[in-house]
Design brief:
By secondary structure, the chain is mainly beta. It has no helices and 15 strands.
Length: 260
């Protein structure tokens, strides 16, 4: 019994401004998503024979991209943009309230999503002042769980419960400013990940034996595994160049909190 989501989501925005005097360009890409994948078996009795498998999987990519440029000949060129991705994802596989006859039982849930926020900005002034600003931010909350609850398992050779989270979260921002007098470039890239990854057995028995908190059951192989392999990647860069004064400021932040 399996449930699988394969969601690819793309959001693009762009802006451009050009003038002999004041040139402005701004763009914001914002994506807020909530995704859920669930396998639930709630039955009185299951006769599965050799093997019973429950699998919930989430795959796919979310892209948020912003690009902008401003060009002036004499006065001021300012370009700024942001790409913001916010996602809440739930992946659950649960078997509960059943008397199960199966040699092998496997319950697994896994999150393999990818989240990408990219922002690029450029400001160009031939004789004036130029500025380019870009920000890319990801906020991801994931809940991945596999559970055997209030069940009686008979004649089982092995029971495997696994919950795995291994998404890739990428934030990249770049800006360039080139002016005749003054030029400044600023970038921000930030990732925030909150993870809840749980593999659980609650109130269940295996071949007439209550499964102890430490997971010991005689004459049977029992595996309960929770793994958070989330990857957060940052890339931020800026160039500011002018005949009089030029500079750039780049900042990057990663924040990860997990509950296993």
């Amino acid at each position: 019994i399996a449930a699988k989501s394969c969601d690819d989501i793309f959001l693009l925005s762009g802006a451009a401004g050009a003038s002999k005097g004041l040139a402005l360009a701004g763009a914001v890409s914002g994506l807020i998503t909530q995704l859920g994948t669930r396998v639930l078996v709630d039955a009185e009795q299951l006769d599965a024979g050799e093997q019973l498998t429950l699998t919930a999987t989430a795959k796919g990519e979310c892209f948020v991209v912003s690009g902008e440029s401003a060009v002036t000949q004499n006065a001021l060129a300012v370009s700024g943009g942001s790409a913001l991705g916010m996602c809440r994802i739930t992946v659950e596989a649960e078997l509960c309230h059943a008397v199960i006859n199966a040699a092998r039982i496997q319950i697994s849930s896994q999150n393999d999503m990818g989240y990408y926020s990219i922002a690029v900005s450029g400001g160009f002034g031939d004789k004036g002042i130029a500025a380019g600003l870009a920000a890319a931010i990801n906020v991801v909350h994931q809940s991945v769980s596999a559970r055997l609850e209030s069940a009686t398992v008979r004649a089982a050779e092995s029971v495997s419960i696994s919950a795995v989270a291994q998404p890739l979260v990428f934030a990249g921002s770049g800006s360039i400013a080139a002016g005749g007098i003054v030029a400044g470039a600023g970038t921000l890239a930030a990732n925030g990940i909150a993870s809840e990854v749980h593999a659980e057995i609650r109130g269940s028995s295996l071949d007439g034996q209550t499964i102890a908190p430490e997971g010991k059951v005689a004459n049977s192989m029992l595996e309960v595994r929770a793994n958070d392999g989330s990857r957060a990647v940052l890339l931020a860069g800026g160039i500011g160049a002018a005949r009089s004064a030029g500079g750039s400021l780049c900042m990057g932040f990663n924040g990860i909190g997990e509950s296993l």
